[in-house]
Design goal:
about 150 residues, mainly alpha, 7 helices
């Protein structure tokens, strides 16, 4: 059997993907997470904070909630139900970091949890810093030119 024939056979046998259902579930789960975030933001705004002042505590609360739900084993259920809808917000990033750390908790707090937390977060932080530096450099160069 040739490669092309094999690929056609695989495509015929492959179960159909519920793309619309997956998209709707991702939209709903992501929307629920964002609605919780909006509720937290509204709480801080009702306490007299400006939107700029409320941004940091909002991020802290959402990371905490994502971490807590991961530790309780609930965020994995959200991820299975909502796919990328659960993976995209800041809570999904918290889930990724905490899950990596929890996987190695038997190796100890420093060499297990501490080291594995940064196997996921490290590249993201480095990419963010490099990108911020590049954007800042371009901004600075544009100010010099104009």
């Amino acid at each position: 059997m040739r490669s092309r024939e094999y690929q056609q056979l695989v495509r015929r046998r492959e179960p159909p993907r519920p793309v619309l259902g997956n998209a709707l579930r991702a939209f709903l789960i992501g929307g629920i997470i964002c609605a919780v975030g909006q509720g937290v933001l509204n709480f801080f705004l009702s306490r007299g904070m400006s939107p700029q002042q409320a941004a940091a505590p909002l991020s802290i609360v959402m990371v905490f909630l994502g971490s807590l739900l991961t530790a309780l084993g609930l965020y994995d259920r959200l991820g299975k139900a909502g796919g990328m809808g659960a993976g995209l917000p800041i809570t999904g990033f918290a889930n990724t970091i905490v899950a990596a750390g929890m996987e190695y908790r038997q190796e100890g707090l420093v060499l297990g949890v501490g080291a594995k937390l940064f196997t996921v977060a490290g590249p993201v932080i480095v990419f963010g810093l490099v990108t911020a530096f590049a954007v800042g450099l371009v901004h600075w160069l544009l100010r010099i030119v104009s």
